[in-house]
Design goal:
Shape: elongated
Number of helices: 8
Number of strands: 2
CATH topology: Bromodomain-like
Largest sheet: 2 strands, antiparallel
Strand content: under 5%
Oligomer: single chain
CATH architecture: Up-down Bundle
Length: 162
């Protein structure tokens, strides 16, 4: 029988990831706040964690490796959100990622002119805040919490497995 403690940790991480993605989508499509490119990229670790945990749920092999991958994914998320936070606060300059437009299928000059007229959301502009904090700040804190939790699970894996 599979260990219930590790199952609970996986369920918590899955739930946090799911709520994070649903919240970002709600804020974008229902509340109408346009995300910047880095905001969109910051959703990737949560989607990856949902996929990994789902795959692990059905195959139940290499649990330790899945936990390690999740830890690395959220380390990437922390670094990315810290970089985005630094851009918001003016510590770092915006990179090319912030100014890239997603649509490369421009066929006519009219479409090109329309693309030039649409405003690209800057990575340094915070369009949505909760309690005075940007979503990037919450992502940074959440990523750090998940890294600590996953590190504790990794270090005590044998104890949790028993």
């Amino acid at each position: 029988m599979r260990n219930l403690k590790i199952d609970i940790f996986f369920k918590i991480i899955f739930l946090i990831s799911f709520i994070s993605l649903i919240s970002a989508i709600f804020i974008e499509y229902i509340l109408g706040h346009q995300p910047c490119n880095l905001c969109l990229i910051q959703r990737i670790p949560y989607g990856l964690s949902i996929m990994l945990i789902t795959i692990n749920y059905f195959h139940k092999k290499n649990e330790w490796f899945v936990i390690l991958l999740l830890n690395l994914i959220f380390c990437f998320s922390l670094i990315l959100s810290f970089y985005h936070f630094g851009i918001e606060k003016g510590f770092f300059e915006e990179s090319a990622v912030c100014t890239l437009k997603n649509d490369f299928n421009i066929i006519s000059k009219e479409e090109l002119l329309n693309q030039l007229q649409t405003k690209i959301v800057s990575c340094k502009d915070v369009t949505f805040k909760i309690f005075g904090f940007s979503l990037t700040t919450f992502n940074m804190i959440l990523s750090l919490i998940l890294i600590v939790l996953l590190t504790i699970i990794l270090r005590n894996y044998e104890k949790f497995k028993k």
